[in-house]
Amino acid sequence: CIGGTKNYQCILESKKLSRADIMTKYLEKLDKCHEPIYEDMDITIRQDAQIAIPGFYIVATKGTYKKISFMDIELYKKCLYFSSLISRSLKEVFNIDRVFMYYDEHYNKPSSTHFWVMPIYENVIKEHNLNPTILNFDVWRYQELFEFQHSKDKIYDLNDGMKKVLKKVRR
Predict the structure, then answer these.
(1) Global pTM value
(2) Number of neighbouring beta carbons within 10 Å of residue 149
(3) Sign of the torsion formed by the C-alpha atoms of 39, 43, 49 and 51
(4) Taking Cα atoms as reference points, which of 45, 58, 34 lies closest to residue 148?
């Protein structure tokens, strides 16, 4: 996970646990950037564990679903609602020009289907001459440009601000 003085923190644990399970189990040992910005009985929302892009949030279900099609429709709609709310808030409240929303399924990994909300910082893509989209490799290059030691203060600030935005939500 991102964090610590070396830009990452490592925990030796069983491969049977998903990253989300590890983050929950060891939350007190991990950097504060991994504290959920929103949590209820169905979902947890927090900074991405590996990529230090400020405002890169994962909307994850607490139950395990290998495919979106296995999810209850109401839970799926809830995940989309929060993904959309975060995307809109990143643009309107935090002045980020573009935000990508994806979902991720893993067939063999011990993880559940989850949703990405990833801000695109125009100054970064211009500086590195990138055009990140789901259709090209630039999106992966873009993610590699962020180091925790340089972006942690902005991650903390965005997390605090987004907690305030999500606190107003009544679901």
Answers:
(1) 0.87
(2) 13
(3) negative
(4) 34
Residue owning tokens 């490799």? 137
The one-letter amino acid code at 128 reads H
Q: What is the pLDDT along the chain (171 residues), one digit of tens a residue?
A: 777 777 776 777 777 766 777 778 877 887 898 899 999 999 999 999 889 999 999 999 988 887 888 889 999 999 999 999 999 999 999 999 899 998 776 666 556 778 999 999 999 999 999 999 878 889 989 999 999 999 999 999 999 999 999 988 765
What are 34's two structure tokens?
A: 């991994």
CA 47/CA 35 separation, integer angstroms: 8
**Helix or strand or coil: residue 1?**
coil
Give the C-alpha separation, 113 to 103, whole Å. Answer: 7
**Burial of 68: CB neighbours in 10 Å, binned 0-12, 13-18, 19+:** middle
- Between CA 110 and CA 14 the distance in angstroms is 10
